[in-house]
Design goal:
elongated; 2 domains; mainly alpha; 8 helices; 434 Repressor (Amino-terminal Domain); 136 residues
Length: 136
């Protein structure tokens, strides 16, 4: 398997892990919703999924951010190592892909919308709580 085909497999796996159907039409739509440059064509994303080409670094960054995966891992198949080490936060250690996507979306919201999302989540938490929490 060559480098382009291995990238295609990592892209497909990342899409599945993020809860998306692995289809060119889905990739085209979701990518173009997040990319501020010239929209990518159906044929271009099809080549990514078939292993015929690899996107530019700029496009790879958009894909990685959308799919909540390390860009280096998406491109090369392994997490980049660095000489600077920083302890991970507790939520980074135990979070899954869905939680990472949710947190990334939340962080992009303006302050007022964050407050609304927090209130909605607290309401759901209270409504579906099985035990009394100390914050009630």
């Amino acid at each position: 398997m060559n480098e382009k085909q291995m990238f295609a497999e990592r892209l497909k796996n990342a899409m599945q892990a993020a809860g998306y159907d692995v289809r060119s039409s889905v990739l085209e739509r979701e990518f173009n919703l997040r990319y501020w440059g010239k929209p990518i064509t159906y044929q271009a994303v099809r080549r990514w999924l078939r292993g015929d080409s690899i996107p530019s670094q700029e496009k790879l960054q958009v894909l990685a951010h959308w799919l909540a995966i390390d860009p280096h891992q998406l491109r090369y198949g392994r997490v980049a190592t660095s000489s600077i080490s920083e302890p991970s936060a507790v939520w980074d250690i135990s979070s899954n892909n869905e939680e990472q996507r949710l947190l990334a979306l939340y962080r992009r919201l303006p302050t007022e919308q964050r407050k609304v999302v927090l209130e909605v989540m607290e309401t759901f938490a209270k409504a579906y709580s099985t035990t009394d929490s100390p914050n009630k």
